[in-house]
Structure formats: C-alpha cells, structure tokens
TrEMBL record:
Keywords: DNA-binding, Membrane, Transcription, Transcription regulation, Transmembrane, Transmembrane helix. InterPro entries: ArsR-like_HTH, HTH_ArsR_DNA-bd_dom, HVO_1552_C, Metal_resp_trans_reg, WH-like_DNA-bd_sf, WH_DNA-bd_sf. It comes from the Archaea. GO terms for molecular function: DNA binding. Coiled coil: none annotated. This is ArsR/SmtB family transcription factor. Residues 31-104 form the HTH arsR-type domain. It comes from Halomarina halobia. The chain crosses the membrane at residues 125-144, 177-194. The keyword DNA-binding applies. The lineage of its organism: Archaea, Methanobacteriati, Methanobacteriota, Stenosarchaea group, Halobacteria.
Amino acid sequence: MSGLLPTSTDASSEQKGELRTLWLDSDHAGELLSSLSSETARAVLTTLHDRPATASEVADRVDTSLQNARHHLTNLQDAGLVRVADIRYSQKGREMNVYAPTEEPLVVFVGREERKTSFLDSLRSLVAAVGLLGIVSLFVQWLLTPETMATAADSLPRMADGLGNGGAAASLSAPPGVLFFAGGLLVLALLVAWRRWHRVNYPTV
C-alpha cells in the first residue's frame, strides 16, 4: 500500500507572490525577528530557500535534532516565513509535511513613509529592468544563432596575432545572450552607483 503513496515532491522554493513590506516597530516584526534570533533558525530558513524539505531532512542539513528542527519550523511558520508546500510519505507510509519559504518575499523597512515609497519604487524599477534585460538577452541569443555567429566570425579581421593564439576564438566562445546580459547588468550597476553617489553628494532640499 505504501508503494502507492507519493514519496517525492514537486514543491518549489521559488517565490512568485507580491513583495511584502513590514515596519520594524510593528507587532509582527517582533515575532519575525524573534523567530530568526537563533543561528539554527536562520540556517533552517536558508536551507529551505535552497530546496524544500521535510523536518527530518532539515534536521540533517543543519545538523540539529529533529525536535529542534520542528521547533524552529513551527516558529518560522507562525512568523509567516515558512509554509507547508506539500505532503509526502515515508517508505513506511508515514505522512510528512514538506516545508518551503512563503511565496511572498519580505522586506523589513526602517525609515519614514516617503522613504519607504521611494525605496519600493526603486526596487520595483530595478526588478523590471533586470526582467526586461533578460528578455532582450534571450532575443539576442535566439537572433545570433551558431550559424550566424560562424558567418560573423569568418567576416571579422584576424586578431589572433595581436591577442595571442586563440584570443579571438576565446572572445567568441561565450554565448552572445550571456555576454549581453552581463553587460546590461554592469550598466545597471553603474547607474545605481551613480544615483546613490549623486543623492549623497547633492541631496534634494
């Protein structure tokens, strides 16, 4: 009979929900910070972000007792950081909860309301920019197929003498979509750094 019960899970650690914000002086923030006050609790939450797991698997990963793992999982669940994502069964047919992070990422905010709004707007803009960059990078990767790249490489002037043997070939070895995405991330990082520098040195009145 136990062979008919699911012993694996399709649960995911991916967080697809809306971004949540929490004020540091709120009652819920106190519960959340209390649930993370232990190093073991933080290790439990971290390992669930890597991969969902049962209580016994969590205990093995963070090198603690099963009782202690269950204690921290309960606290994290009460604080809204962990959820029961699935149920699976042991080889003996025993029911086990599969734990995963909550679907909504969380930001604990310290500051004034207007700074919170500005921060969230900036964060959303950055996430949107990275998402758009990823889509464009996929298009670049699709556009520059291996056949197209081979034709372009044949048409480029020989640069091996100046770069050393194999230098030009090595520069073309990385997928074009990856190169485009990496370059875009660099530009975004420079823009964020410049905006932060400008805000510090030329604050608005």
